[in-house]
Specification:
CATH superfamily of the largest domain: NIF3 (NGG1p interacting factor 3)-like
Radius of gyration: 19 Å
Number of domains: 2
Number of helices: 10
CATH topology of the largest domain: Udp-n-acetylmuramoylalanyl-d-glutamate--2,6- Diaminopimelate Ligase, Chain: A, domain 1
Shape: elongated
Strand order of the largest sheet: 5-6-8-9-10-7
Oligomer: single chain
CATH class of the largest domain: Alpha Beta
CATH architecture of the largest domain: 3-Layer(aba) Sandwich
Order of helices and strands: HEEHEHEHHEEHEEHEHEHHE
Distance between the termini: 35 Å
Length: about 250
């Protein structure tokens, strides 16, 4: 398919025009016109770019791309090296940030819910980024944390709150610790996101709601894979996911 057919399809699928975001969603670096092989990854790091180029990708699709709001616009250093590799090999970079978090089926939050066996019942917050759902069976915070560790293949940092049984859960992938108060107000037993801030400890202690930081990368690795698989099946493209392990 043509690059801009891919761009337009993704824009419609993910409804990119509806989001106020911190970076451009869509084509960030233009490569060759025809796309047959798509690589996907969480972040457009140098290691991922090198791997995608080595595989022969025509386009690299990521969640964390380039050109973030308030960053230095100069193309120097690390940014220069990353862009140079893409341009040298005529590989396109397409990035989808908040639209990929929020998509009802392919999104990071939806896919994280599936992985953790959470049955989504509602979505709340700015741009529907906060999901709420139920565990099939109530668990202790220790049992739930162990289940998350097994499914995401990394240890989670858990602030257990008042030790209540966990049944109703809110979650938002990535760096969404700022949604914890809103999650508490929704009457959940636990909140899952990728990262934790100092104040989250006190909010968990005083509200009784467990806070679980399961990793920024770990909670955002599923949406881009789902998007890549969807595109490969729909358009007959070759797809490969490159997972650069990240402890954060």
């Amino acid at each position: 398919m043509q690059l801009y057919e891919l761009r337009d399809y993704n824009a419609s699928l993910l409804q990119t025009s509806l989001f106020k975001d911190y970076c451009p969603n869509g084509v960030q670096v233009e490569g060759r016109a025809e796309v047959k092989r798509i690589a996907t990854a969480v972040t457009a790091s140098q290691a991922v770019i090198d791997a995608a180029v080595g595989w022969g990708a025509d386009a690299l699709l990521v969640h964390h791309g380039f050109f973030w709001r308030n960053e230095d616009a100069a193309i120097v250093g690390i940014k220069k090296c990353r862009l140079a590799k893409l341009l040298q090999h005529d590989v396109s970079l397409l990035a989808y940030h908040l639209p990929l978090d929020a998509h009802e089926t392919l999104g990071n939050n939806a896919q994280l819910g599936v992985v953790l066996d959470l049955q989504t019942t509602a979505r709340y917050g700015e741009q529907n980024l906060l999901s709420v759902g139920d565990l099939k069976t109530a668990q202790t915070s220790a049992q739930f944390a162990l289940s998350i560790e097994h499914k995401l293949q990394r240890a989670a940092q858990v602030i257990a709150g008042d030790g209540r049984q966990i049944k109703r859960v809110a979650w938002c992938s990535g760096g969404a610790q700022g949604y914890f108060e809103q999650a508490i107000a929704l009457g959940v037993d636990a909140y899952i996101t990728g990262e934790i801030s100092e104040q989250n400890f006190h909010l968990a202690q005083e509200s009784g709601v467990a806070f679980i930081a399961a990793g920024h990368h770990a909670t955002e690795q599923f949406g881009i894979q789902a998007l890549g698989s969807h595109l490969a099946e729909k358009f007959g493209l070759h797809h490969r996911f490159f997972n650069q392990e990240n402890p954060v």
